[in-house]
Design brief:
The protein is α/β, with parallel strands linked by helices and about 475 residues long. The chain has helices at about 20-25, 50-55, 70, 125, 135-155, 165-180, 200-210, 260-270, 315-330, 360-375, 410-420, 425-440, 440-460, and strands at about 5-10, 35-40, 45, 65, 85-90, 95-105, 105-110, 115, 130, 185, 215, 220-225, 230-235, 240-245, 250, 255, 280, 295, 300. This is Pyridine nucleotide-disulfide oxidoreductase family protein.
Length: about 475
């Protein structure tokens, strides 16, 4: 029998979709004629869903990181037959930098995004702590915390702290140490909190912010950041300008495309969106201009006439992972399934469990922790298949696919369960209800209507 030709898959970035590809195509499970090369600047990837908890000191940094190095046990081959290569810069033995060409049959990009306007607004990159990359965010906050502790010991610290965004997590982290010396201001360009969510959600978060004395300032745009002040103006009145004092700023302004996207556009004509720089892909996560290039997660925009591209949220990168595994292996002919590519159909909405520091229903926190830890557990290198356990198929299952649930509760019972605030709530059953609601819009609306009536009745009785 002839040995099948070697197929080379190159992964650029260790994002939420790629870590699933890395796990599925681990050396112990992939075909012997498939080579996988991972190109990344870091050996660990931070899971975004657990970062607010890490900032709040509910998790340590290692607990929220996926160790890519041990997970990606894959070699690098530099033969070049089809002249399709990725150029990378690597350090040599003497501390210098050399350029290598990595050949591929298919390449996938999952590099996430950068923080919007961080390098455009004067002073932002010099004085602010950016939320991206996530691992640097936590390290910077830990460093600043130690500096504050040192200054408190020697009595040199007397000013209050103003911090921009991640406000509740920051309050939870620094509240005990600083108490009345901690002043938090949230500045945003929108007209209010959670503008795309329901009035009930907005009201609930507003009450939490007020309880912990977090000042919220809306409809403000930043002009410049100096060493002591944020210079802003009103989006509704250009003449209304002010300077807001601070000692620390966290820059959390949403997603912006990496420079790499623009570079690929200039170098090889990779199609990106005109104004934002997102890599444009079809429903198969395949580049519109280069069929051998795939992209997933925050760095791409799905162009689909029937549906808007999903928002930049980690859940969509996670859910696209199994689709990416299928399509990469099918494209290079390494899949045992049919070679037709599989479409990714993003869900319309997703479960949002916000870690709001000290203010969170206990059962909700237990549910969020359970979901996040369950996802992270997928990438425990000690649980990867051994060579003598080689499987016939790649593991493309979603992290929660194996969890069965009983028949849905009656809508009124479901509403009562979700409204409970006591510590005896069975969070597994609550999750069943939430997943039933996500799977059935009619059931979801019925549960929500009953819940709203119950809340309105409670409020009227209080008044």
């Amino acid at each position: 029998m002839m040995t099948p030709p070697t197929k080379k898959i190159v992964l650029i970035g260790g994002g939420h979709a790629h870590v699933q590809v890395i796990k599925a195509l681990n050396v112990n499970t992939r075909p012997s004629n498939v080579e996988v090369t991972l190109i990344d600047l870091q050996s660990a990837a931070s899971y975004s869903g657990m970062v607010p908890g890490c900032v709040s000191k509910l998790y340590t940094l290692p607990q929220v990181q996926i160790q890519i190095g041990p997970l990606a046990d894959c070699g690098m081959s530099l033969e070049d037959e089809e002249k399709k290569t990725v150029q990378v810069e690597v350090s040599d033995e003497n501390g210098g930098v050399i350029t290598k060409e990595v050949p591929f049959d298919a390449v996938s990009v999952d590099i996430g995004s950068t923080t919007r306007d961080f390098n455009r607004i004067p002073g932002a990159s010099q004085y602010c702590i950016s939320t991206r990359p996530i691992s640097d965010l936590v390290v910077r906050i830990e460093k600043e915390e130690q500096l504050l502790k040192d200054r408190l010991k020697d009595g040199t610290f007397k000013a209050a702290i103003s911090l921009w965004l991640l406000s509740l997590a920051i309050r939870a982290r620094f509240n005990e140490m600083l108490d009345s010396n901690l002043s938090i201001t949230l500045i945003d360009s929108s007209d209010g909190l959670l503008v795309n969510e329901t009035p009930a959600n907005r009201k609930a978060l507003e009450s939490v912010m007020a309880k912990y004395n977090i000042d919220t300032r809306f409809s403000l745009l930043v002009d410049e950041v100096t060493s002591s002040h944020v210079h802003v103006h009103s989006s509704k009145d250009q003449s209304s300008r002010e300077k807001i004092p601070y000692s620390h700023i966290i820059w959390a302004t949403g997603a912006e495309a990496h420079d790499l996207s623009w570079s690929l556009n200039k170098q090889c004509g990779l199609e990106v969106s005109d104004t934002r720089g997102w890599i444009q892909v079809n429903s198969y996560l395949q580049s519109l201009s280069h069929p051998y290039i795939f992209a997933a997660g925050d760095c791409c925009e799905i162009v689909n006439d029937n549906k808007k591209s999903p928002p930049k949220a980690g859940v969509y990168a996670v859910r696209s992972g199994p689709i990416l595994i299928e399509n990469l292996t099918r494209f290079v002919g390494a899949s045992k399934c049919a070679q037709e590519l599989v479409p990714y159909n993003p869900q319309d909405d997703f479960l949002k469990l916000s870690c709001v520091g000290m203010e969170l229903r206990w059962w909700v926190w237990k549910l969020k922790d359970f979901i996040d830890v369950m996802f992270m557990d997928l990438f425990d290198v000690n649980k990867l298949p051994k060579l003598d356990e080689k499987k016939d198929e790649y593991d493309t299952a979603q992290y929660d696919a194996s969890i069965e649930r009983p028949p849905p509760l009656a809508a009124d019972d479901a509403a009562k369960l979700l409204l409970r605030t006591d510590d005896d709530v069975d969070f597994y059953r609550a999750w069943d209800v939430l997943r039933d609601m996500m799977a059935d819009d009619k059931y979801k609306n019925e549960v929500l209507d009953i819940a709203r009536l119950s809340v309105d009745k409670q409020l009227s009785e209080i008044i």
